[in-house]
Amino acid sequence: MDNHFGQNASIVFDGLPIPPTSNMQYAIVFRPTGRQFVPKKELVQYKKAMADYFLRNHVAIKHAREVLGGGKALSVQAFFAFERSRLFTKKGNFKRLDVSNRLKALHDCLAKALLLDDSCFVHIGAAKYPVDTKDEEHCCVNISVVDMEEEGEEPPPSVA
C-alpha cells in the first residue's frame, strides 16, 4: 500500500501523479454568452489518474477521512520528484520549473477524495527534488492535523 498512518494524525500519499501546471489546466472558449473555462486534456487525464489512485487505495482513503475529517485545520506538504534534467541545466544551474502553480489541481483532487473543503488546508508547502528517470517522477503528499491554538500563531496585521 502507498500510504502510511502515523500517531500524530498524519497521512502520507506516495506515488501520486504530478499535476499539470495551471497553464495546462483550462482553455478559455469565447461564447456568445461570454467566456467559458473548459478543462484541457491534461487536467482531465490528471483527475482520472488521481481517481484511479484513490480507488486502488480505497481502504487508506476511508481511514484518512476518519483521521482528517471533521473540520480540522490541516497542513498539506507536497513533494514533487522530477527528472534531474528538468530541474538543472548541464552546468548545474536551476531551470525554471514552478511547482506552486500545480498545487490547486492537487488540492482539489485531495479534497474531493477526502470529502473535505480545501479551505481547511491552512498550512501549505511544496518542494521539488531530483530523480534519475522520467519514470520515477511522482508526487508525495503529507497531510497532518494542525492545532491552531497550540501553534500560537498570530494573524497578520490587517492592511488598511
Explain what this protein looks like in three dimensions.
This protein is an alpha+beta fold and 160 residues long. The protein has one domain: 60s Ribosomal Protein L30, Chain: A (2-Layer Sandwich). The chain contains five helices and seven strands, in the order E-E-E-E-H-H-E-H-H-E-E-H. The chain has helices spanning 41-56, 58-68, 84-87, 103-114, 148-151, and strands spanning 3-5, 10-16, 26-31, 34-39, 74-83, 121-131, 138-145. The chain has a five-stranded mixed β-sheet. Strands 3-4 form a two-stranded antiparallel sheet. It is globular and about 45 Å long. It starts with a strand and ends in a 9-residue tail after the last helix. Residues 1-7 have low confidence and may be disordered.
Tally of domains: 1
**Residue-averaged pLDDT, rounded?**
87
Sequence stretches where pLDDT stays below 50 over 5 or more residues = 1-7
Please state roughly what percent of the residues sit in beta strands, choosing from under 5%, 5-15%, 15-25%, 25-35%, 35-45% or over 45%: 25-35%
